[in-house]
Design goal:
This protein is an alpha/beta fold. Helices cover 35% and strands 20% of the residues. It has three domains: 279 residues, Ribonuclease Z/Hydroxyacylglutathione hydrolase-like (Metallo-beta-lactamase, Chain A, 4-Layer Sandwich); 180 residues, 3-Layer(aba) Sandwich (Rossmann fold), CATH 3.40.50; 41 residues. Strands 6-5-4-3-2-1-22-23 form an eight-stranded mixed beta sheet. Strands 7-8-9-10-11-20-21 form a seven-stranded mixed beta sheet, covered by helices on one side. Strands 14-13-15-12-16-19 form a six-stranded parallel beta sheet, with helices on both faces. Helix 3 packs antiparallel against helix 4 and helix 5 packs across helix 6. The radius of gyration is 24 Å and the shape is globular. About 2% of the residues have low confidence.
Length: 533
């Protein structure tokens, strides 16, 4: 009965935790790192083919983005997530695969000209489609018996459509332990989705700390602030460019834009147009429409019941094809452009930055957290020039931040969430925060709750029966990540993974009839004979 921390330990992204209950191997989240890699992360301690189950807290790529890679390495187990998370992963993992393949193709064109080795994408569309077949959609607040040793329940975390904290009851040798994985906790009072639910009992709690070092003031009137940014930008004759996550933040921006229109907060530019330039955002918006009853808060539901779409309004345009995206930059009047990715690391937003950063009349408005090391973070930090598509772009546009808007709870709300457990937990593990924030917030939790709290590093292993750390992971700092670190130089790693999967399959066949085992052994030997020659 052990818990091992793999990703998002003393780091903000790449969430992944390994839980072993007897012979059952389970992952909670399987996320991709975004931005710089601070510490060397421990690999999953068993072969991917030996992972029986994966639980996903929500669809953001830093929690789900390595699922196709897990599949390519042999995983064929079941993935449990809420219904909305399953639907969002269906589009987000395909989009991630498309980006991986596009970037590899672009780099290989340059590599061929320079005589350098070609690269392979981390995973491809077949891997994304393959892993999606293993999702098991679940309802909120229902106990699900995953197997005799594991029971789970998904609780609304209020962070994203379908986001959840996950209660896990694990049994080994007739002893049951309850763990709670917070996922990302929302701040409450969101325009569309519900507030996070509190959980009252657990033996162990694994919780995020993204904003564990800061307090936000009472949320301002975001629609009014957004209207003022539009007014200033349109008056100069420029465009308002908003880098926004396709899932969650884009839909919130549409809610505020609708409010500007319906409440006439911008009368001098009442007919302004808003362009969503992200096929993923368009698909995600459709999924929002399908999940209103299960995920939307009451005031959003009230609008819908009155026949009002809370994220639609006159002047809203969408660009799906690449030609439609390119045409946006030829529009001669001031407009709002909402495009992904939210941290400006990939996607169509980079084209709009190329066309607008050099313009002193335009504004680039950030509406979400920018991981240190990303292009978005550099721009917010005052960068004077940036490189886009091999070209140096001078930054003359106004760079602004819509302060306070976030999908993450601040320190006060994080403490409220963990205090709901009272003194029942044996230990609280603090993850998913910047290096110093994890340690500082763990100290704060222990001081405020009286419950023992710690901030594990990648590779730290805890014996849950004994409530003790039995192995320490590496504190080694990672080498600075290069831009194409997600790529691999050859496919040998895939071959090794296939071989490891074969071994995992063989181990599971013990006890089968001798005739079947002999036939399988002959097939393997025949294949080996072919390649030996």
């Amino acid at each position: 009965m052990r818990l091992e921390f793999l990703g998002a330990a003393h780091e903000v992204t790449g969430s992944c935790h390994y839980l072993q209950m007897g012979e059952v191997n389970l992952l909670v989240d399987c996320g991709m790192e975004q931005g710089p890699d601070l510490y060397v992360n421990q690999e999953i301690p068993v072969n991917a083919a030996e992972i029986d189950y994966v639980l996903i807290t929500h669809a953001h790529i830093d929690h789900s983005g390595l699922l196709p890679l897990l599949y390519s390495h042999g995983f064929r187990g079941k993935i449990y997530a809420t219904r909305a998370t399953s639907e969002l992963c269906n589009i987000m993992l395909k989009d991630s695969a498309h980006i991986q393949m596009f970037e590899a193709e672009w780099k290989n064109r340059k590599a061929r000209r320079a005589g350098r080795p070609l690269v392979e994408p981390m995973y491809d569309m077949d891997d994304a489609r393959g892993v999606l077949e293993h999702f098991v959609p679940c309802a909120y607040n229902e106990k699900i018996a995953v197997c005799p040793q594991i029971t789970v329940r998904f609780i609304d975390a209020g962070h994203l459509l379908g986001s959840s904290s996950i209660e896990v009851w694990g049994t080994e040798d007739d002893k049951t332990v309850k763990l709670v994985f917070s996922g990302d906790i929302g701040p409450g009072d969101r325009p569309l989705i519900r507030d996070p639910q509190y959980i009252e009992e657990a033996d162990y709690v694994v919780m995020e700390s993204t904003y564990g070092d800061r307090m936000r003031k009472h949320p301002p009137d975001y629609a009014a602030e957004l209207a003022e940014v539009c007014r200033e930008t349109f008056s100069r004759g420029g465009n308002l460019v908003i880098p926004a996550f396709s899932v969650g933040r884009t839909q919130e921006m549409l809610f505020f834009m609708r409010k500007i229109k319906t409440e006439n907060l911008l009368p001098e530019f009442a007919d302004f147009e808003v362009y969503i330039d992200s096929p993923l955002a368009v698909e995600a918006t459709n999924i929002f429409h399908k999940n209103v009853e299960e995920c939307f808060r009451d005031r959003a539901l009230d609008l819908i019941r009155k026949g009002i779409n809370p994220i639609n309004f006159p002047g809203l345009k969408v660009a799906v094809s690449s030609d439609e995206s390119k045409m946006i930059n030829f529009i001669q009047k001031p407009i709002v452009i909402i495009s992904a990715s939210g941290m400006c690391e990939a996607g169509r937003i980079r084209h709009h930055l190329k066309h607008n950063l050099w313009r002193s009349d335009s504004t680039v408005l950030f509406v979400g957290y920018q991981v240190p090391g990303t292009l978005g973070n550099h721009l917010l930090g005052g960068a004077k020039e940036v490189r886009l598509f091999g070209e140096t772009i001078e930054v003359k546009a106004r760079i602004a931040n819509l302060a306070g808007i976030s999908g993450h709870a601040d320190q006060e709300h994080l403490l409220q969430w963990v205090k709901a457990f009272g003194k029942t937990p044996k230990r609280v593990f603090v993850v998913h925060g910047q290096d110093h924030v994890c340690d500082e917030f763990a100290e704060l939790v222990e001081r405020e709750t009286g419950v023992r709290a710690s901030a594990p590093y990648s590779g730290d292993i805890y014996d849950l029966a004994a409530n003790a750390c039995v192995a320490r992971g590496s504190r080694e700092r990672a080498v600075k990540k290069v831009k194409d670190a997600r790529m691999v130089s050859n496919v040998f790693a895939r071959l090794v993974a296939a071989g490891e999967r074969l071994l995992a399959v063989i181990r599971k066949l013990e006890g089968r009839p001798n005739k079947e085992l002999g036939k399988f052994a002959d097939q393997i030997n025949s294949l080996c004979d072919k390649w030996d020659q």
